[in-house]
Amino acid sequence: MKIVSSVFLAIAVTAAMIAGPSAASDGRENPFVSGAFDKVKIGEAIASAEGVAPLDGVTGLIVPHHLLAADLMARGFKAASAGSYDRIVMLAPDHFHAVSGGFGTTRAGFETIYGTVETDAAAVEMLKAGSDLIKERDTLAHEHGLVALMPFVKHFFPATPVVTLISAVDTTPEQWRALADALSRLVSDRTLVVLSADFSHYLPMAQAVLRDQESLSVIAANDPGGVVPLIQPDHLDTKAGLYIQMRLQKDVFASHPAVIANRNSADYAGVADNTTSYVTAVYSRDPEAAAAIAPDDQSIVYFGGDVLLGRYLTPVLLDDDARKAVVRRVLAVTHGRPLVVNLEGVILDEPVSGLWDDAHLMLSDIAVPVLKDMGVVAAGLANNHGRDLGLVGYDETRRILGEAGIMAIEHGSVIDAGAARITALNYIAGRDSAPALFREPEEATAVCNLDAAPPLIAFLHWGEEYTREAGGKERETARVLTDCGVQVIAGAHSHQASAQVDGVPGRAVSTVYSLGNLLFDQSMDTASGALLEVRVFGRGTVFARLIAMPNLFNYGNAHLGAAATQ
């Protein structure tokens, strides 16, 4: 799209919005609708999603409606195309003020280049009967928030009817909650809920990126209440739609979000001083499934918790079948992409006599191959066991890692991992740890002085053992790090994995208090683990999500001698 045409398009749609829906009887006079009837454009967008793996169990989507980003619409619908649905509920903004103080719907179908998308009239009637907030319109053919998506609906789900809802700009959080409650009685396991939304509007690039990161952090936290403080349209054009989608996905489907695209209109049109941004997200019950979607417009890095490749784990690592089973289980999630772990101990080439029974010692000929096979590119040494054998053992660990091509992340340092910069901080005292230890939250301001281009991720060793949630000290440390520009905070030490990604109120950051154990010799019920997937998009925004992992110590022991028993 040429720059000048983008400007005229904005002027034209503004005029159409002032005129209202009566200005276009079939909707095609709206310049944002006309592209939906361009068979070449839509066909090219669908072809661009050819490499996207359809996922089982998709319950929701977030897709743009600005056809400048038609490829991102296709990406979302292709990801959901393995599903078989009785109906698709579509949520969109009311661009043309067709309704006030509530929501609009219609029983009319929608014409597309592939045929008519029918409306589930019985479902519309049921929904209207359950809520006095919904006003029926003869048609919504003028609303590009719906019409732009319809060719993709018809292509990927040719026989599935829709229920369409537009949200008035003046709806309130109480009304959002009421409509979410009404929809919860309509949706089922065979319903796909689609939010049609464009994100930051009319902002220069730097501000758009900041607003997008704030929005992505809200989506990552999966807390509908986080939508309320967002600014419309600085963050997105339908807070109502995002709130309702998040409520349904969390409370009805128990699904988890994975953002698989974040772009800006400047990526298409070249205009950076007045932009619109786009997000494509997939909701599914199994967080692990979405790891299969890895488009080439983003980079992905994983973070794992505590790793100790020795001590009581040694029999597992020496057994070929058990070791391979453990590695395969990790790669099933990461697909061999870069992995960063918290290395809890010392690696040496030779054993040391006279050590205490539970010494955190790993032998290089056992540990290094496992780290390499799992795709570990960096290991955090900022913890309470990195100096268990003094400075000599610490330096040997750094040397062995370096010779294996694995970066060591030391306390207060920063590494360049390509997709992101990573720093590590230690708040837990250990043997000889005084030179590499913070005690108070304000000491984290040292991160402000790091020479680190965004995005910056902080890997923290902090908190109390056998806890899943941050305490006051950890929350204050997170606020300090956010003020230093950190976008993701990943924690370790507690041996228990957190259940969710948290936000910091009013900040553009995602925090996971603890990743628990990745590969550590604890079998008790209190030991658990998760991987943190961080997607880095072209403009430097990031999206973080948790993927629960089994106890790999138990998993490996279950595979001991597997070949002999077959």
- The number of distinct helices, counting runs of at least 4 residues, comes to 18
Which ranges are low-confidence, i.e. pLDDT below 50, for 5 or more consecutive residues?
A: 1-25
CATH homologous superfamily label of the largest domain: LigB-like
Oligomerization: single chain
Approximately how much beta-strand content do the residues carry?
15-25%
Name the features.
single chain, 566 residues, alpha/beta, Protocatechuate 4,5-dioxygenase, Chain B, Purple Acid Phosphatase, chain A, domain 2, 2 domains, 9-stranded mixed sheet, 7-stranded mixed sheet, disordered N terminus
Structural commentary:
The chain has 18 helices and 26 strands. The protein has 566 residues and is of the alpha/beta class. It folds into 2 domains: 287 residues, Protocatechuate 4,5-dioxygenase, Chain B, CATH 3.40.830; 269 residues, Purple Acid Phosphatase, chain A, domain 2. Helix 3 packs across helix 4, helix 8 runs parallel beside helix 10 and helix 13 packs across helix 17. The longest helix is centred in the first third of the chain and has 17 residues. The N terminus is likely disordered.
Report a brief summary of the structure.
This protein has 566 residues and is an alpha/beta fold.
How is the secondary structure organized here?
Layout: H1 3-19, H2 31-34, H3 39-48, E1 58-63, H4 70-80, E2 87-93, E3 103-106, E4 110-112, E5 115-117, H5 121-129, E6 134-137, H6 144-147, H7 150-156, E7 162-167, H8 173-184, E8 191-196, E9 201-203, H9 205-221, H10 239-253, E10 256-264, H11 266-269, E11 275-284, E12 298-307, H12 314-318, H13 320-334, E13 339-343, E14 346-348, E15 361-363, H14 364-373, E16 376-380, H15 390-403, E17 407-409, E18 414-416, E19 421-426, E20 456-461, H16 472-483, E21 486-492, E22 502-503, E23 510-512, E24 517-519, E25 529-537, E26 542-549, H17 552-558, H18 562-565
Parallel strand pairs: 1-8, 2-7, 2-8, 3-6, 12-13, 12-24, 13-16, 14-15, 16-17, 19-20, 20-21, 21-23
Antiparallel strand pairs: 1-11, 3-7, 4-5, 9-11, 10-11, 12-25, 18-19, 22-23, 25-26
